[in-house]
Structures are given as structure tokens and as C-alpha cells.
Design goal:
The chain is an alpha/beta fold and 1088 residues long. Among the domains are: 237 residues, Transferase(Phosphotransferase), domain 1 (Orthogonal Bundle), CATH 1.10.510.10; 186 residues, P-loop containing nucleotide triphosphate hydrolases (Rossmann fold, 3-Layer(aba) Sandwich); 41 residues, no CATH class; 77 residues, Serine Threonine Protein Phosphatase 5, Tetratricopeptide repeat; 115 residues, no CATH class. It is 63% helix and 6% strand. It is built from 49 helices and 15 strands. A hairpin with a 2-residue loop joins strand 14 and strand 15.
Length: 1088
């Protein structure tokens, strides 16, 4: 287990002697950890973190006690000092017993003395008072009733205190003996010698009463014992300090959530068995969400589950804020390869230092590619874990860019040992469950009156059960946990002590000034000397950045930071959670901010901004927080500078939602005369809107930017904007208009000698030509772009252009060249860590292998593509891989599997509104229906497909649709329909100049000629198609082989051979022309 240890903490590994049952020992340690973790008292050693590592070795992190010694070895100059140690022990016991915990192993070795105070530790034998208990503990300190098997009560712990007190003042054990039987006999029957005690008689009487054989003759409880001890020693009775009072409130019994806890514990058990789930815990602020997650964390650690915890913040955070701490922990537990490290550095800049490796350059990806690379890397890290993990993410109502990552991770937990539990304020973000479709929701209600009584009793003892007190708490708080504890805190302050709350006259109302006044009372307990830094901390963020606070302390000569932390923690204003200091509740921080005077608030934001600039000025991830502080400080010029950095950083991470907010803010505060600044923000906003596919808005924004660039004669920006505006036309199917913009951009880029821009414009023009079927124009554009990208070593651009050239090779059915292009493109994308692009390249590579006849390699590549696409959540590429796998099934004549895969692909394509993909899926499903003779179903598929293809001018798909319409007509005996649709298919294939579509359609023509008895024409086509390299290697070849056998069986051998060679030397365009003529002749009754 790894944990950063601060100066106030030290790792302590409890040592036990070897031997014994390992599971029993582990359970004992788990019990100790669980008990310690729930205890917060100034005289009990606090456990900060605990658990079991991979091999189930125990660890825990506890408060470090400098120069500590056990009780009997502690230096003490006088009786009063020794009594003080005993009073500390009794105060700790009073706290334990109030929370129904018996220590059962009190002895000098389990009481440490440091700095003049005593502290209890070692709770391996502690149990809840209602648990079954057996004889346990160290014999010399066990009460007589425990030895005889009678019920063990808090009085047994008081007896152990009596034994230690006797040893302190008599310098020997009250029942010293040479053997165990002799000691047992003395404990049960002998009375300790009072004369051995070197103390006044009043103290002797207290010690001897603690050692009474009958537990009922000892003191009623630990508080009564410590009062008697104080009185006997002539010391003032200890008052209830603020720190002690807080200890009771913080460890209030966990009540009212048994159902929710049982559900989450069951989910944790399923996750340990490899059936992970995601849960959202919702409810209003203060309802107890964090407490529930604390309990779940404890349960998980005791069960040997690794716990990762993160928290979103509403301001002052960095991108992916809620994920930073979990990912840092995960990085230390994982074997991270260089690509993963480089990718994660974008959001965890100190990752190289954490891993003790050199920093790596961040992959050169476009924003969407980088965000997908981050998400994919996180998914890979979680998928690689071999131990069960509980991931806790708090305050998800403030999470922005991290929600997409959570959604994607949630989709892959089903087969992992991963339980994800997030909390959110359901009243602030009620739509969150709809954004996380895989998550199940637990909504926390307010506590019932009976649960309020149970909670009150755990804090106040029996007095907490008073009916009028419970009624008051119910009326004032309505069962809100935060309000409940605050109310008890106020009542205790008024009464003087917690145990007096139920004994004094209760007020008619507590919330005279509302809950805000209640919170202010807690804040007022922080002394004036600490208030300045407290206000600055509240302005900075809920989670405390100690480095930043240290800078503020140094800059403004504020009190010592460590002392300030202790002061605020003792006032229960801040707390330490999983090694991170933060405000104990966000309502405390909210109240501080609301109460700040306008001028004071502005000054505080300025101070925080200056400190952030001094510490993190060159770190882009802090720019959003910095911009926010300058905004609140009223410094718009400095806000703009930070906004500019923040906007570029979020764009680089693909966080478009956050980037859009920043761009809109920048535009709103730019001076009217700052046209260059306005141009920059408009250009970026337009590209953000493009990323959201809001093309009309993007066109308007980008056009405004272009007009501004024109006025400023900013030619470089004009060239970039021409490409962007062309993109708005391209993605809406206005290809001629798009090409016009791209052509203007290319001319301007050439004038500017901007090679990267030239390559981009060439690629954009090539895309227009390609999608319009003008391959003769597209290929040279792509080739020129490729040459430039190789020269300038634009790796990301090189991968794209190679993929585009692969598309050209695919169009011409040059599968060997296609394999070359797509293989290189996939390799570069792997190198860049762009898994989204890898899946795309592999899908296309598989098509090339299939056309080359290497079906085994095609399937292997597709399985890889499908796996990567599913990891990255790229639905488009998942649908594509399923489509290609379905076609392999058709090649095997496995129409059942082919149908299932195509239907899955179609469903995904409908989900993402992929019209191109839907058209082809429908056409393939029609092909299967035709093969199975279900022509009505084929007609339904083809009607929808044709409507989509014509609406979007997808002419390649139209060829497939017309061809299947011809086969459908043939099956129905409609020869005119066959002729009509084959002519349309051939003409469309000719228009788009696609040899593969020409040959596939000519195969259907040959089938038709064979069926109607035009054997010579059929044989001529068979001979030509068997020699043509563009013919589909599987399906068409199979059909040609079948037709070839049929023709040989019915034709004269010489006539057959002559027919096969009749088209030798002819071009495919000429053959298509003849086929169209033959089909036209068929319609008029001739043979053409």
C-alpha cells in the first residue's frame, strides 16, 4: 500500500507474533481497523487510512506521536501528573462507551504518553457492546467477571484502569503471581494491598473501588470515575472541551441507512465476483451522502477491496478534477506504457514525477482525438486491474468533462471487479441519471423521528431519548443530518456540555435566524487570528491546496499554517479526508463567501489570483481557476489572459462544453475596440460549435469571424476560416459550396507558404471529390497532401491522408495498395495513442484483406477493431466492425449470423443517426432476405434504404440497392423490374466510376442472362469477370463459379470457349455499355 506521509503522519504496521489461523488474525486486525477508523477523540490515536494490500497484508496510517512511551514508562514528576494520564484514559473510555464500544484489552502497552497527554490505541479486541464476547485480553488486566464467563460491561474496562492505576502508584501489580493459575486465583479471591499505594487515602479509595470484584460496586460509568479521581486528587473536574465535544458529534452512530448500505454491500460483493455496477447516491445537501460513502469505504477496506476516491468542485478545480486522485493512485498500481503516460500527462502534469520517469511529449492529436485517448487510457487502466476496486466520486453535480468518462467506464463494469459509487445533489442536477444510463440510483430521504432518536442517543447518551428533545430536533431539522448535528452542537454550547443537553430546559426554537446563523456560530469558534486565512481558503476552493495556502501565509505574514490547520480542525470547520484537507461541509464555505463584504471578497480573490500566478503561472490546468479569481477581483484584462490559456487548454483536451462557456465569457468582456481578440474568440467558438455538429450556428459565427479577419487583413486567419466555413457546408451535404471555400483556402495557403495549411486544404478538397465519386480529382489532391505531410512530419495528418488514400485504393479495388495504406495509417495512430483512429483504420484494412481473399486475416483484424472500438465507446466504429463481420458470415453462407450482426449494426447506426451506415446496413439485410426468398422483407429494407440514399445522394449505396432490387424482382419473376434496376445500377456505377460496383452488378447481369437463355452473353461476361481483378473475391466469385458450371453443362464446348474469350481486351466501361444495350434490347423483346 502506498500513501504520501506528511510531517504529521507516520506509517505504522502493527506487528503480531507468527502462528495461529491467518484468517482469524486478519479478521481481528480488520475489526481493529474498523473500530479505529470510526473513532475521533483527542485521547484516541486516530487512524487516517487502512486496509489490506494485494497479498492481504495489513497496513494502516495513524497520527504520529513524537517521543511516545507507554503508560508505566512515561515520565511523571508528581501524583497530579499521573492522575492526569488516568483522566485522559477515562475521558477516552467515556467516549468509547457512549458509542457502545468496549476496549477489552486495556493495559499500559496500549496507552501511549506523548506531550503530557495519554492516548489509547490497539483496538484488536474491541467490540460493540451488543456483540457476543468471549474471554479476551491480557490476563493481568482482565476483570474477574470476564474470567468467570459472566457478561462483560463497560465496568470491565474500568477495572483495567484500576489495575494500571495501582501499578502506577504501587510500582507493582495488585495480583502479582508466579503462575497463571495463581494469578487467576488472586484476581478472583484476593483484595489488593492498599498500603502499597503511595497516595493519599482519598485516591486509594478511588483505585480500590475501580478494582472491586463485583462490577456493580465499581463506578457507574467512566465519567463518574474520572470525576471521583479528579476530586480525590484535588484537581478541577475536566470540562468538556470543544475538541472532545466534536469527537462525540463526528462519531455519531450511522443510522437510518440500513437499506441503502445493504444494497451497496451486496453490489460490492458482486463486484468482487466480477460483476461490477455503477450507483448514484442522490439527495439534498446535508442529507448524509458522504457519511454513507464513508461507511461503504470502511466496509470495502475491511473486505480487502482497493478504494479510490475523488471529488468534483464547483470552482477552483482543474480539468477532470474528480478523477485526478483516483488516477494518481491507479497509476502507482499499474504498469503504464509510454503512450499511456504521455496521454495522461495532459491531465496529470506531475505524473512523470509520481512514476519517477522522464516527461514525455504529448501525442499530436486533434482535440476530439486527445479526449478520446484520455478516456481510452483510463478504461484500459481499470480493465487491467486484477483486484476488486471501489471507485467513489463525490459531488458529481459539479462534474463537467468527467461525466463522459464516467459514462464510458460504467458501460464496461459488467465483467469487471469494479464498483463505482458517485454522489450528487439531486435538487441541483436532477438530470444526471439520464446522462449516466448504466447507473442505478439510490435517493437518500431525511431521517424519521425514530432514527433521529437513535442518532440523538449516540451523541448524548440516555438524555438523547427525551421525548421533548427528539420533538425539538425533529421540528427544527426535519431529519436533515447536517442540520441535526449542528442543532445538537448549538444545544451543547448553550447547556455547557453534551451530557447536560437533555437535563436543562430546552428552547422553543433553535433556528431563530435560520440555518445560516447556525453555521455562522460554528464558524465563529475559529479565533480572529485564523479568520483571514480561513476566508482566503474559502475563496480558493473547498479542497485546500496547502502549497497555495503556504504561499498566502508567506506573502501576507499570516499565522503558521500547521497551527491554523489544527485550530480550524478543532472547530470542526475543516477535516482531513483520504489525506486531503477540505472544508468539513460545503455549507460552511458557502456561508463564509456569502458573508464577505464586496470589497473584502474582491481583495481576497486578487490575493488568491496573485498566489496562483506565482506558483502555477505556467501550468495551463490552473488557468480556469485563475480566470475566475481575476473575474471576481474585477480585473478583466488579467482575466482575459487567463481565459485565453484556459480556453486553449480545454480545447486541447476536447472539453467542448467547458471551452464554449469560456469562449462566450471572453466575447462578453472583450472591449469593443479589441477586434483582434474578438476574431480569435469567434474563430474558436465557431470550431467548438462545429464539434457539437451545430453547423448553422457555426456557419454564422465563423462568417462573422471571417468578415472581421477580412477587415483586419489577417490572411492566415482568413485561410483557416475558409476551411472551417467550408466544413459547415461539407457536413451538411453542400459539397459544391464546400469545395469553393476549400479552393479559396488552398490558394491563400499557397500564398502564405503555410505547408500544413496547404496539406489540410488539399485534403479537404480531396474529401469533396471523393464523396462525389470523382476519384480522378481526389487522388492527386490526396497524394500532394501526403507528400507535404511526410516532409513536415505531421504524424496525425499523415495517418488521416493515408487512410483517405486507402479509400481511393478500396474504390478501385486495389486491395494490395489499400492494405499498404491502411496498415501504415493504423500503425501511426497506434503510435499516437489515438485508439479511435486505430479502430477506423483497422475496419478499412479488414475490407482490403477480405477483397484479397485472406478471410482469416480479415476476421482477426476485425476482432481487434471491434475490441478497440468497444473500449473507446466509438459506436460508429463498433457498427462498422459488426457490419464487416456480418459480410464475412455471408461469405461463409452463414446467413443466420450475418442477419444478427447486420441487425446489431443497424440498431447502433440508427442510435447515432448515421445515414450512410444505415443505408448500407439496410441494403445488406435486403441481400440476406433475397437469399432466403423473403422478398416482402427485402422490399421493406430496400424502400427505406433507397429513400435515405437519395435524400443524402449516397450513390455508391444506390448501386447496391438497385442491384438487390433487381434480384428481388427476379425472385418474383418480374423481368422488367430486373432489367430496369440493373440498368440503373450499371449507370450509377459508371457515374461514380467504381469498378467494384461495376463488376458486382455485371455478375447479376450474367445471372440474369443465364436464366433467360442468353447463354453466349452470359458466358462472355463470366469469362471477362473471372479475369478482372476488381471482382469481389468471395460472393461474386462464388456466384460466377456456380453460373460457370451451369453454362458448361448446357453449352457446346467449343461455343462455350469461344464465348468466354469474346470480351478479351475490352474495357470494363465498354462491357458496361454493351450490358446496358443488351438489357435495353431485352425490354423491347430483342437481344441487343
Amino acid at each position: 500500500a502506498l500513501k504520501r506521509v506528511t510531517s504529521s503522519e507516520r506509517l505504522r504496521l502493527p506487528m503480531r507474533s507468527p502462528g495461529g489461523d491467518a484468517q482469524v488474525l486478519r479478521l481481528a486486525l480488520a475489526r481493529e481497523f474498523r473500530t479505529l477508523a470510526s473513532l475521533r477523540h483527542p485521547n484516541i490515536v486516530s487512524v487516517l487510512d487502512y486496509g489490506f494490500d494485494g497479498p492481504h497484508l495489513p497496513y494502516f496510517t495513524m497520527d504520529y506521536l513524537p517521543n511516545a512511551s507507554h503508560l508505566l514508562a512515561a515520565p511523571a514528576q508528581h501524583v497530579g501528573q499521573k492522575v492526569g494520564y488516568l483522566i485522559d484514559v477515562l475521558q477516552a473510555l467515556a467516549y468509547l462507551h457512549r458509542h457502545d464500544v468496549l476496549h477489552r484489552d486495556l493495559k499500559p502497552g496500549n496507552v501511549l504518553v506523548s506531550g503530557g497527554s495519554a492516548y489509547l490505541l490497539d483496538f484488536g479486541l474491541a467490540v460493540a457492546s451488543d456483540d457476543d464476547v468471549n474471554l479476551s485480553g491480557t490476563l493481568a488486566y482482565i476483570a474477574p467477571e470476564a474470567i468467570t464467563g459472566k457478561a462483560i460491561t463497560p465496568a470491565a474496562d474500568l477495572y483495567s484502569v484500576g489495575v494500571m492505576a495501582y501499578e502506577m502508584f504501587a510500582r507493582r501489580h495488585p495480583f502479582a503471581a508466579d503462575s497463571v493459575p495463581a494469578m487467576i486465583n488472586l484476581i478472583l479471591n484476593d483484595r489488593p494491598d492498599p498500603l502499597a499505594l503511595d497516595v493519599p487515602d482519598s485516591l486509594k479509595r478511588v483505585i480500590l473501588q475501580l478494582l472491586a470484584k463485583d462490577p456493580t460496586e465499581r463506578y457507574a460509568d467512566a465519567t463518574a470515575a474520572l470525576f471521583a479521581l479528579s476530586d480525590a486528587a484535588g484537581l478541577p473536574r475536566p470540562t468538556e472541551s470543544q475538541e472532545i465535544r466534536e469527537s462525540y458529534l463526528k462519531a455519531a452512530r450511522f443510522v437510518g441507512r440500513a437499506r441503502e448500505m445493504a444494497i451497496l454491500e451486496e453490489a460490492l460483493e458482486r463486484a468482487q465476483a466480477g460483476q461490477g455496477t455503477t450507483w448514484l447516491v442522490g439527495g439534498e445537501s446535508g442529507i448524509g451522502k458522504s457519511r454513507l460513502l464513508d461507511e461503504l469505504r470502511t466496509h470495502a477496506l475491511v473486505s480487502g477491496v482497493t478504494v479510490l476516491r475523488g471529488q468534483a468542485v464547483n470552482e477552483g478545480g482543474v480539468p477532470f478534477q474528480a478523477w485526478i486522485n483516483p488516477l494518481r493512485s491507479l497509476a502507482l498500481r499499474s504498469e503504464i506504457d509510454p503512450t499511456q503516460q504521455a496521454t495522461l500527462q495532459a491531465i496529470i502534469p506531475d505524473l512523470p514525477a509520481l512514476l519517477r520517469r522522464p516527461a514525455l511529449s504529448v501525442p499530436d492529436l486533434d482535440p476530439k482525438g486527445r479526449k478520446q485517448a484520455i478516456i481510452t487510457t483510463v478504461l484500459e487502466l481499470f480493465a487491467a486491474q486484477t483486484v476488486p476496486i471501489l471507485l467513489i466520486l463525490e459531488d458529481l453535480h459539479w462534474a463537467g468533462e468527467g461525466i463522459e468518462l464516467l459514462d464510458r467506464l460504467s458501460r464496461q463494469t459488467r465483467d469487471q471487479q469494479l464498483l463505482i459509487v458517485g454522489s450528487y445533489r439531486s435538487d441541483e442536477r436532477p438530470e444526471l441519471p439520464r446522462q449516466l444510463e448504466q447507473a442505478r440510483v439510490l435517493t437518500l430521504d431525511r431521517l424519521s423521528k425514530a432514527q433521529i432518536e437513535e442518532l440523538s442517543t449516540s451523541m448524548l447518551g440516555q438524555a438523547g431519548q427525551r421525548g421533548e428533545l427528539v420533538d425539538l430536533l425533529n421540528k427544527e431539522t426535519e431529519g436533515n443530518l447536517f442540520f441535526l448535528i449542528e442543532t445538537v452542537r448549538i444545544l451543547a454550547e448553550e447547556a455547557g456540555a453534551l451530557d447536560q443537553v437533555g437535563k436543562v430546559t430546552l428552547p422553543q426554537s433553535v433556528f431563530v435566524g435560520g440555518i445560516r446563523d447556525i453555521v455562522r456560530r460554528r464558524l465563529s469558534r475559529v479565533p480572529d487570528r485564523a479568520q483571514t486565512l480561513l476566508k482566503l481558503a474559502a475563496v480558493a476552493a473547498r479542497q485546500l491546496d496547502l502549497t497555495l495556502l503556504g504561499e498566502l501565509v508567506d506573502r501576507h505574514k499570516l499565522p503558521d499554517l500547521d497551527a491554523w490547520l489544527n485550530t480550524c480542525a478543532n472547530a470542526a470547520v475543516i477535516s482531513l479526508q483520504d489525506g486531503q484537507w477540505q472544508f468539513a461541509h460545503d455549507k460552511l464555505r458557502e456561508t463564509i463567501l456569502q458573508d464577505l463584504h464586496h470589497n473584502t471578497r474582491r481583495a481576497a480573490h486578487r490575493k488568491v489570483a496573485e498566489a496562483i500566478e506565482a506558483l502555477y503561472g505556467d501550468q495551463a490546468e490552473y488557468a480556469v481557476a485563475l480566470a475566475g479569481h481575476w473575474r471576481e477581483a474585477g480585473k478583466t484584462d488579467r482575466e482575459l489572459a487567463a481565459l485565453d490559456t484556459a480556453l486553449d487548454h480545454h480545447l486541447s483536451l476536447g472539453n467542448l462544453q467547458q471551452a464554449e462557456q469560456l469562449a462566450q465569457r471572453g466575447l462578453s468582456i472583450l472591449r469593443s475596440g479589441d477586434e483582434q481578440g474578438r476574431l480569435s474568440y469567434l474563430a474558436r467558438l465557431g470550431n467548438i460549435q462545429m464539434g457539437f455538429s451545430r453547423y448553422d450556428h457555426a456557419h454564422e459565427t465563423l462568417t462573422r469571424a471571417f468578415d472581421l479577419a477580412n477587415r483586419l487583413d489577417d490572411r492566415r486567419e482568413k485561410a483557416n476560416l475558409l476551411i472551417a466555413i467550408g466544413g459547415t457546408h461539407f457536413f451538411q451535404g453542400r459539397f459544391d459550396q464546400a469545395d469553393s471555400y476549400f479552393e479559396d483556402a488552398l490558394d491563400l495557403m499557397r500564398t502564405l507558404a503555410d505547408e500544413k495549411g496547404i496539406a489540410q486544404a488539399l485534403n479537404s478538397r480531396g474529401n469533396v471529390a471523393f464523396i462525389q465519386g470523382n476519384l480522378e480529382q481526389a487522388e492527386p489532391l490526396y497524394q500532394e497532401s501526403l507528400t507535404i505531410r511526410r516532409r513536415i512530419n505531421d504524424r496525425a495528418g499523415l495517418s488521416k491522408i493515408l487512410s483517405n488514400l486507402g479509400g481511393i485504393a478500396s474504390w478501385y479495388n486495389n486491395h494490395h495498395l489499400g492494405i499498404k495504406y491502411y496498415s501504415e495509417a493504423a500503425g501511426i495512430s497506434r503510435e499516437l495513442g489515438d485508439k479511435r483512429a486505430v479502430a477506423h483504420r483497422l475496419n478499412n484494412l479488414a475490407v482490403m484483406y477480405r477483397r484479397a481473399g485472406d478471410l482469416a486475416e480479415a476476421e482477426a483484424v476485425l476482432r481487434d477493431a471491434l475490441s478497440i472500438a468497444q473500449q473507446t465507446g466509438e459506436t460508429f466504429q463498433v457498427a462498422m466492425a459488426l457490419n464487416h463481420l456480418a459480410n464475412l458470415a455471408i461469405d461463409r453462407q452463414d446467413f443466420g449470423q450475418a442477419k444478427s450482426l447486420h441487425q446489431r449494426s443497424l440498431s447502433l447506426r440508427r442510435e447515432i443517426k448515421d445515414v450512410w451506415g444505415m443505408t448500407f446496413s439496410l441494403a445488406f439485410l435486403a441481400l440476406i432476405a433475397n437469399r432466403e426468398g423473403d422478398y416482402d422483407l427485402a422490399e421493406r429494407y430496400l424502400s427505406e434504404a433507397l429513400e435515405l440514399a437519395q435524400g443524402s445522394n449516397i450513390r455508391q449505396a444506390m448501386v447496391d440497392i438497385y442491384r438487390e432490387m433487381a434480384r428481388m424482382a427476379l425472385g418474383r419473376g418480374d423481368l422488367d423490374g430486373v432489367r430496369k434496376h440493373l440498368v440503373l445500377a450499371l449507370q450509377t456505377a459508371d457515374e461514380i466510376n467504381n469498378d467494384l460496383e461495376r463488376t458486382n452488378t455485371l455478375v447479376a447481369v450474367a445471372e440474369l442472362f443465364g436464366l433467360i437463355g442468353w447463354r453466349e452473353q452470359a458466358a462472355a461476361l463470366v469469362g471477362f469477370l473471372n479475369q478482372h481483378e476488381a471482382t469481389d473475391p468471395v460472393e461474386s466469385k462464388r456466384l460466377l463459379t456456380k453460373l460457370d458450371r451451369q453454362l458448361q453443362a448446357v453449352m457446346d464446348a467449343d461455343a462455350y470457349l469461344d464465348a468466354l474469350e469474346s470480351y478479351d481486351g475490352a474495357t470494363i466501361k465498354a462491357i458496361v455499355g454493351q450490358a446496358v444495350a443488351h438489357l435495353t434490347g431485352l425490354s423491347t423483346g430483342g437481344q441487343g
